[in-house]
Amino acid sequence: MRYNALGGGSEVGASCNLVEIDGCRILVDAGIRVGGARPGGDPVDVLPDLAILQEWNGPEAVLVTHAHLDHIGALPLVHQAYPDIPIYATAPTVHLMRVLLVDAIKVMAIKAEREMECPLYDADLVVRMFNRVVPVAMGESISVGNTVKATFFPGGHILGAAMIGLEGAEGRVLITGDISATAQRTIPGLVIPPFYPDVVIAESTYGSRLHANRHREEQGLAEAVAEVVRGGGYALIPAFALGRAQEVILVLQAFQQANRIPRFPIWVDGMVRSVCEAYVNYPEYLHGPLQKIVRNGGNPFFLNKTTTRAVTNAAQREKILAGHPACIVASSGMLSGGPSQFYAARLAPGEEHAILLCGYQDEESPGRKLLALAEKMEGELELDGARVPVRCRVEKYGLSAHADAGELGGLISRLKPQDVVLVHGDAAARGALARSLAVGTRVHLPDNGEVLEFSFRGREFGVWQPVGQKDPKHPGGIGQGAGLDLARLWEYLVRDSAAATRMYTPEELAALWYGADGSVSAIEEVRTMLRQDRRYFSPDWRYPFFYRPRKPGQMALAHKREDLMRRYRDLPGHLVLLRDEGGAVRAGVCFAVNEAGFEAWKVGKKSSHHHAESLLEVIGIWEFTADPPLPQVEKPRLHRLIAEMKPVFRRLKPQQLWDALREAGEKYHPLDYLMEKAGLDAGSLLDRLALAWRLHAHPDYFECTRSDQENMLYRAKDRQQGEPAEELPAEELADRMEQNEALKLAGELFPPEAGLYRKGLNRETGEMTLYFNFPQPASRQYRQQIEELAAMTGWNVQVHQEAHHGALAETARSVLPRDWSVLKTPSIHREPRQVVIKCEIPPGAGVEEVGRLKATFLERTGFQLVLAGEDVKASPAANLPAVEGTMEINQAYQLIRATISDQGAQVYRTSKKQDPQGAFIEVSFITPEVGERYGETLRVLAGETGWRIKINPEPNQNEVKALVRGKIPLGWGLVKEPGFFKDKKEIKIKLCRLNPDAAGELEEVAREILSLTGYRLTWELA
């Protein structure tokens, strides 16, 4: 018997165990390292040493203990190298593997875009891998290579986790995987197997520690959350999506139900929700009380929907933090990614908030660094791409799902193996556990890649064959040999409330219908029919290889939708009024229909699909301007129509319309009849849209029905005469895209040469402000993109009218011929819109050349270029004389700005401030270090104006970052936003494509940045 830890031997992560018994090579787990860099900053290879598999001539099978990524993350690569070998795991583990690997693919795609990381694998490879995955029942034995028996024993830890026993003529080995001896709220603890191994390969994550009392830790966590929420703050619990998050949800719910803490919202975000659904799919693996809830059709994690709520989209997150104090349970547990980073970045600076950790923290993870900062009571942490100060409450609670030192020692003592191999732990944990084991037990602490060999006396046993999945009520399958009938399969499943709420894979549905006789061709038949006929089973929108039986009510609704859309086949090319997913009335341009609904573009929304019943009124024909129609063309047209419609809409008062309809009697009337009553033009799209929108926006005044000809009919609703009208706010006429998506779209619409260096949003006014280097030319040249941005996002787009002074100065230098020596930094004069530059003009430079330079500069910037020796129109404050006493403050501002500008610097802001000595003028430079260079000038200005003058001690971070971005050539591959470190007076950048020959050029940029800001520029290569 031989053993080799390809990964996860002397570490926590990348678990990958290769065992050879009777010449049969078996790989148990193939995970990745989920942490960042190793201590000391050394880069980390996320994969185990898979090359060893080739040295051993590859495995004959893969067995999986459980679904955490540090045990399954490299499985697709193993399958890629050995595509014909089977992969065995318990049914819940197979389900969870699908969820976690799909999420891992999404995360890798994001990193590929943001950080230029190459993904390990893609979705196609994962799909192919699952064709070789074989579910195994817990407690079941299978035959591997016809020589080795493998048995799956309950391991606790998470749903579906198993210890795996291997038995052959050369001996027995038990691989624990990750285990938990203590029962959790979701699942029971491990069961000591009726198996007497010669070798135990045991995890040792907590081999040097004993867990605190579980109940006390749960109570401490619940009370801490309640205390924070009572104080008006938010409590963030970063939790591993698989296992820990479910425990946390149940803990908080239990304490609320027992009235030991108040009721408050518990928001669940990230992959947690998908994992909760997986737990509900396998009630037989859960604790008794949870089993009962699930079998009655409930979801124990969202029992009280008024308190425990799922976050369904990114836009919700900002609304949650702007709402009532609450608890947020979000992945990931180490703050290394996922929505927990988003929340932590916003909550960490607030003393009223808390971040409560409840799981293992890798040495280099943000969670571990956060704990270290909490001990110092100060510091900053990089979260969600920015450095944020940590002032919030930070605590750690022990809700571990790993066995501790005592439990591991007790298990090994009961099993009485001759040899123990300790893996999945650091040096301290493995060493401490090794010392605690019984005298006479041979203990091995292998490094990754180290081969261990064992020899035991032979044993005899029979040969086992894998058992096919089948429904115990129908051993031959419920189809009883007949061809696949999805309607019958659906009817069978919806009779049982628990079965009706489950998600199924095509393999599971094939096993239910065909029983043990389900073949690869039968599975493919099921998969094909599920794609072609979605009346009975609907694919999960996040994980399309899972299917749910539709509820009977859904089936009836689907038939109703199909009937309705058959009558609206000609809807494309029409302006429609609809009710969107949020329940608001919206205008849309329909461009396609399907059997259940239609596709329509709306202002400010990316989504375009609408169910049939959301159609409120067909307003009229919409002539497309291109074939095929394009949203970037049609949305701006719709945006303009709505803007023109608003005055008509507001003139249509609900009370007056109600009175007119009331006079017409109880009968329902079409829109054309009401158009005439309201004095509107029935042939005008604008008028028709305004009236239909007003009628549907006030269901308390009007009701409608659909005629047999599919026309909408309206009448006045019964209500008391003279009830006050409810005016609809203007913003209800257009929806706004989520702010981060809107800003991202703004960055995509404008090319780099547009000079868009900053974007800002005002949520109260609904305005988006674009900051261009040169706003006047940009407003003219990119008018179409600005209008398109407003239409696509629903935000009112404004262009900031101040030009970027640094860009003006740089452009002034760039337009001059190389042989014209610049003598002084260009001077910016805002009011006359002039840039003055003193330079030596070579003899022979003609008037035409000078005129051409000026015309070029004016066209690019919207500013006039004034050269040395020409008549310069001075800034109004430039020649103000000194006055006695205190100068009028606006004149003082002008004098300060003009004087500093003439000396080659830029004043970003002048403002009146107050201190114990009275009023003073604060002058803001790009950094206070730059301001100090003009200290003598400011002292003279203080004497001339009579005002005390101080330099703003805070740097203008945005301007500094914009300056740095502008100095870095695109070819160098600037990654993310420059880092700003005020205390160190340092700006840090990460580059991914710097040519070694450009090192000197980068040094020159650093010297220029230091000169312009007083800050050092440092860099690293991605």
Write a compact overview of the structure shown.
With 1022 residues, this protein is an alpha/beta fold. Helices cover 35% and strands 21% of the residues. The strands form twelve sheets. Strands 6-5-4-3-2-1-22 form a seven-stranded mixed β-sheet. Strands 7-8-9-10-11-20-21 form a seven-stranded mixed β-sheet, covered by helices on one side. A six-stranded parallel β-sheet has the order 14-13-15-12-16-19, with helices on both faces.
Characteristic key phrases:
globular, seven-stranded mixed β-sheet, alpha/beta, 1022 residues, 46 strands, single chain, 33 helices
Number of helices: 33
Radius of gyration: 35 Å
Question: What is the approximate shape?
Answer: globular
- Kindly name the structural category: alpha/beta
Low-confidence stretches: 37-41, 459-472, 727-731, 869-884
Describe the protein in words.
The longest helix has 25 residues, at 91-115. Helix 6 (214-230) packs across helix 7 and helix 22 crosses helix 23. The relative contact order is 0.06. By secondary structure, this protein is α/β, with parallel strands linked by helices. Mean pLDDT is 84; it is low at 37-41, 459-472, 727-731 and 869-884. It is globular and about 100 Å long.
Write the layout of secondary structure elements.
Blueprint (H helix, E strand, L loop, with lengths): L1 E6 L8 E6 L2 E5 L22 H5 L5 E3 L5 H4 L2 H7 L5 E4 H25 L7 H8 L2 E4 L4 E4 L3 E7 L7 E7 L2 E5 L23 E5 L10 H17 L4 E4 L5 H14 L8 E4 L2 H10 L6 H8 L12 E3 L4 H7 L5 E4 L8 H9 L6 E4 L8 H11 L3 E4 L2 E4 L3 E4 L8 H11 L3 E5 L3 H10 L5 E3 L6 E3 L32 H9 L2 H4 L5 H9 L5 H13 L4 E3 L7 E3 L2 H15 L7 E6 L5 E9 L3 E5 L7 E3 L3 E7 L9 H21 L2 H10 L5 E2 H7 L7 H13 L4 E5 L5 E5 L22 H11 L6 E7 L4 E6 L2 H7 L1 H11 L2 E4 L5 H11 L5 E2 L4 E3 L4 E4 L1 E2 L6 H15 L2 E4 L21 H14 L6 E7 L2 E7 L3 H5 L2 H11 L3 E3 L5 H11 L6 E8 L4 E6 L7 H15 L2 E6 L1
Parallel strand pairs: 3-4, 4-5, 5-6, 10-11, 11-20, 12-15, 12-16, 13-14, 13-15, 16-19, 20-21, 34-35, 38-40, 42-43, 45-46
Antiparallel strand pairs: 1-2, 1-22, 2-3, 7-8, 8-9, 9-10, 17-18, 23-24, 25-26, 25-29, 26-27, 27-28, 30-32, 31-32, 33-34, 36-39, 37-38, 41-42, 44-45
Helix pairs in contact: 3-5, 4-8, 6-7, 17-18, 20-23, 20-26, 22-23, 24-26, 27-28, 29-31
